[in-house]
UniProtKB/TrEMBL annotation, chains A, B, C, D:
Domain Gfo/Idh/MocA-like oxidoreductase C-terminal residues, every copy: 155-391
One Gene Ontology term of the molecular function aspect: nucleotide binding
Name of the protein in its database record: Oxidoreductase
SUPFAM superfamilies the UniProt entry points to: Glyceraldehyde-3-phosphate dehydrogenase-like, C-terminal domain, NAD(P)-binding Rossmann-fold domains
Domain Gfo/Idh/MocA-like oxidoreductase N-terminal: 12-143
Family, as annotated: Belongs to the Gfo/Idh/MocA family.
Species in which this protein is naturally found: Butyricicoccus porcorum
A Pfam family matched in the record: GFO_IDH_MocA
Length: 392, 392, 392, 392
């Protein structure tokens, strides 16, 4: 169990773009980053398009007023002038700003943590990849559910062959909080999500399914997605041509198959994200409502429930352990584990430690690009009438 | 609560074809039929292709040896000669015999209860329909899970509009007992199920998904299926060209959509059959492992769990109640409720009471034909590479 | 799996006292007894104190009207005169009649199946024991929940030492259907249960806790109860001096301890009966709402869920298996398994096969007497102000 | 939802005694206190009896080395000299140091947050109460599970009468991590817990049950405990005369009754803490493994599950909401909510705002004293042979 061990020499000075008063996700970024103040220290922020609101918000968080900025351009420029300027930045804006803000951050010499979905086009991802390499920086993607420790356990069990050959990957991120169309108009956090000019080709496929898709990649690193077929609907009609519900079928290169259901009109469902991995010998099932419980189901044997924090888990699943068994975790611990890994990755990059970088499991730029490919292939399939399309 | 009330004047004399020593389902038929001996009395049987085994089996059940027959042809002929001959017969044979045995039974003047899937071809169904009408008999299909009382509750809630407009129907009948290919060779009950000459175009699509598909029709009587897309696999390769796993997407005439997952290679899953109905305002969720619990999830309100046997259920859901709340039911009660309805239907048919027949909710010949359409549309879609096909 | 095997040569001719129109439990007796008609055949009945109601009820069940009787005395006398008279009788009356009816039945040469709690006084039990021995008959007690197959699995695991030394036995039978005092007045099935002249010294202690107490004895055959302490209440005041809620603490001879909570005012609880056995190395947990699932919890290892019908269970837990895995059971199967064992016991007694009798696990006269001791010790403790009393 | 709102003008400068390298609970204190750095800022520490280990630990947390101290006496003295000295201190030491450290802190003019159980004797509590009043400071107790939002919901529902009259309070804090006696010797965090000189009269009664007992007081503020009866055991014999298992029965002044089971030898149980409140009309059930789900069970109506973060909850239950529905919380959020309330209480005390203090729901000195009374009454009862004793 982690009790006060150091993972990096000192915390990174860290800034944030977005994530202010009207953002529900900003709190998760801050809490995730600030665990024990050993990975990141919140140093500067451009929280909001409304600078007054930004300043009030920052002061409430006891931040230094000098480090609050009207926009990211100013923040990057001013911080660059300081000896104690920020070293990493978080892009927590609506989707359409991810690309330009990430680009500007890299050009300002910062490591980047960007909200999902990363960008709209694969080409943008490739360009950013070249830029990041050139600048010697890394780009992380906040698939915020992917830090749960039992996901590492799933990965350990899958890659060690405990399930036999992987045959099926069944994914779901489907809740009902979009049933009421009023939210599209009234909530600032929702409004841009249903505006194609702000989110690109997809609503729930981008907003929800990219999370679960990444998690499936993390758990099953050897499965290469080949084709998808997507049927999507706007049950709340005003959302058309974006979708509030989508069914996706998947085919992997090795013959495995999969499904994804993503939805914000799955009325009343409070257990939104489910992952089931079916092997030839056994299955694993996990959901994000009870993230510290993992069901392992070997065919013909008793079902097992594995709990977070226990000594029988794989070393990878115990690596981030801090609370101890019986003390259950929530979403914030997932974010904290993730941010802890981001800091380790940045530190390794700074030190030129490619070995550490290669072995560290975290959502990086490649995964972000995979997310773009996923969304675009699904949207293309749906727009052609729900036919099979290659993922590329 | 039902305590000794009569539903029909006297029980039907009832015979069975198949369902003997090597059949796992025969017990369910007998127990379902024989509740309190008020609906059916087991009178004659052709349990087995092996007549000695049939006789031994019948004697163990304390049956009159004279009423045990080497085959259904003999049984129908001999019973027809008796004043106390059977009035109804159960066809519990492998699938490929359903059509001819049903036809022979109707011609012998018997009501028929037939195992699912009914026949291989829609034309056979239509022919049997004409014959049944001509003979004034009915044909019931043993979708044995469809007698659970809470399914009636789901139907009541759906048809009364408590869920709003139905948007999605998510179905699953997926277990893992086919993971081991040895069963295909060793188990008599399994062997014929993977032989195309005995089961027609499909394995799990016929063996499993027809159950859940009927249940969805029963719950949502107003939803008309328009198109399906099916991707199927034989993860145990020897089963090809039959499938042991299938993903189906559905489109309904009114814009609703749905999914079905049926599988016998869903390793380790013990909660095999799930039904989720998603409306614009609320959802319902049920599974056959806990059949006396129904989850009602109105968006934005607390989730509710409704229990069988309670006074707050609809009259339809309480109609078959015999145990009382807290006393939980299993699969046998579902079969008993179903057989009770079959008896009421036969009695109504005999009395020319079309009103009762029309209002009685039970799987009849039309539903059996719908099941054939379902299987054939799925198989056609899969064979064309998983494309959309019309259900007809 | 049981498929049509014979356990006894032919079914017993069986009669019932009580269990008619106003009885909720009669259906469970009949269905339990009549599985496949191979253990018992319902032959005669004195269903009701109201003979007209008895006759109507019997006719609805398609019974021979000649075998319906106005009272058990007449039934025993008349049946004794027939060559095909009943051989066993079920006492399903209110508690205060158990003793005299059982005595009369034994004197009439019948095996007896009696509802719980057996009698009011230990002395009555001892007298009946002598009478039964003299007559060469057995007396069974319908602890109707005790036939679930996974209870046999629990017994196998406990007696084979898989839990280590048994330290705690935590029991609960606590529902809320007595919250409404109106039931005491309005329901015929409830009225006598709150009348001390009909039920003796206890209401829920007798009506509910004797079930769970027997099940704990069955699971842990080596634990000898030494002392109890009981605090009881009548939260619905009109029930005083009977209780509608009781907390019991238990001390076993070997230092193990236990608890029982029995209640009919545990508002809203639908999962009424729970059993938890805690050993020095592992625990078992079971509840009657999900009787086909058994939680096995070895300390420091993943929790396991064992399911009924699976090949990994002990031979004892598979002995009564008829449905097959995935096909879940309800309360009726528990009753059926129990009645099947009663028939085997009666047959063994008739054949003088003491070896079979000794090894057969079923609630016999001794267990019935233990139930009386349990109730009386609890009542005595409570009446003395909730102090420790010896169980004797 | 809380998004960056200020609850107090600026965070308190905060120190900690204990909670270092060998302490599992220290992380929870730090994370709880440091949410968004708006309630407390970790400023000084005496983490350890081993000063080198303290210094290394503090440096890993990026603390200023000058503010790391060899013991609390030095810390209080040195900090008192500074203008920016600490204003509040956390006592996270083994139990036997709570009293003297709290006393010294108050004398040094600090607000105190103390681990449970508070002290050994009621008299110590009374003395500290007088001292705190004299100094104008408050003493909070870290019942760390009591900050979950749904506990506030339970309180709202109980006090508003939704359950009717409260009849029963059923409590449990029983896990199995003490099954292995080796832990008593090998783990520094466990060793002192089984040493009477360090923990006083009780092991699990103090270590575990005080948590759940306080939570029951918080939920049912009007229930006054009158008598307890406790039977306790040391199933691991070396723990005698301390207990590793205890059963407690409770009687409240208004006739309600209750139970507590606390244990560290409840082998294999991973769902350790349960609270069930039974009223005359409905019950509530909650457990700390799934803290964001509350079961509300009105007798005769469908069961309801209420989820954290939803608009249908009481204002009190929404007050600390920061994550939003579907984003589930863990133990750290409970601690954070609690520390947030401690800060508000200290701020109110500083401002002389008695109104705020009176209405704020948090575990204060009185609750700490109640915990001492609870432990001592239980121990006294057990030592007298498990008899009823008054709580005083």
């Amino acid at each position: 169990m982690q009790i006060g061990e150091k993972k990096i020499e000192r915390p990174f000075r860290w800034g944030i773009v977005g994530g202010g008063k009207t953002s529900q996700v900003g709190y998760k970024h801050r809490l995730g980053a600030m665990r024990d103040n050993t990975s990141f220290v919140l140093t500067a922020a451009a929280f909001d398009v409304d600078f007054d609101r930004c300043k009030e918000f920052g002061k409430n968080l006891c931040m230094d007023e000098d480090r609050l900025y009207p926009d990211y351009q100013t923040m990057f420029a001013e911080e660059a002038k300081r000896e104690d300027g920020i070293e990493a930045v978080d892009i927590a804006t609506p989707n359409f700003l991810h690309y330009e803000a990430t680009k500007a951050a890299l050009e300002a010499g910062l490591h980047v943590i960007c909200e999902k979905p990363l960008f709209f086009e694969v080409e943008q991802g490739e360009e950013i990849k070249r830029l990041a390499e050139e600048k010697g920086k890394i780009v992380c993607v906040t698939y915020g559910f992917s830090g749960f420790e039992l996901l590492q356990q799933m990965r350990s069990m899958v890659t060690s062959g405990m399930l036999g050959k992987i045959n099926m990957i069944d994914l779901r991120y489907a809740h009902g909080f979009g049933c009421d169309p009023e939210g599209d108009v009234k909530s600032e956090g929702q409004k841009w999500r249903v505006d194609p000019s702000k989110v690109g080709r997809a609503f729930v496929l981008g907003d929800l399914s990219t999370h679960t898709y990444y998690m499936s990649q993390m758990i099953c690193p050897d499965q290469k997605l080949k084709q998808v077929l997507c049927d999507r609907q706007a049950f709340v009609g005003s959302r058309y041509p974006l979708e509030d519900n989508a069914y996706v079928l998947m085919r992997y290169e090795d013959g495995a198959v999969g499904r994804m259901w993503c939805s914000c009109v799955n009325a009343g469902d409070m257990s939104s994200q489910h992952i089931r991995i079916v092997g030839s010998k056994a299955s694993l099932e996990w959901n994000d409502m009870h993230p510290d419980e993992l069901h392992y189901q070997p065919q013909g044997q008793p079902e097992q429930i594995l709990y977070r924090g226990m000594g029988y888990l794989s070393p990878e699943a115990q690596e981030d352990e801090r609370l101890g068994a019986l003390h259950y975790t929530g979403l914030i611990e997932s974010w904290s584990n993730l941010y802890g890994r981001f800091a380790v990755a940045m530190d390794a990059k700074n030190r030129g430690d490619e070995e550490t970088l290669k072995n560290l499991v975290y959502p990086d730029l490649e995964h972000g690009i995979d997310g773009i490919k996923w969304i675009n292939a699904c949207a293309e399939s749906a727009d052609k009438g729900a036919v099979w399309v290659d993922v590329k």
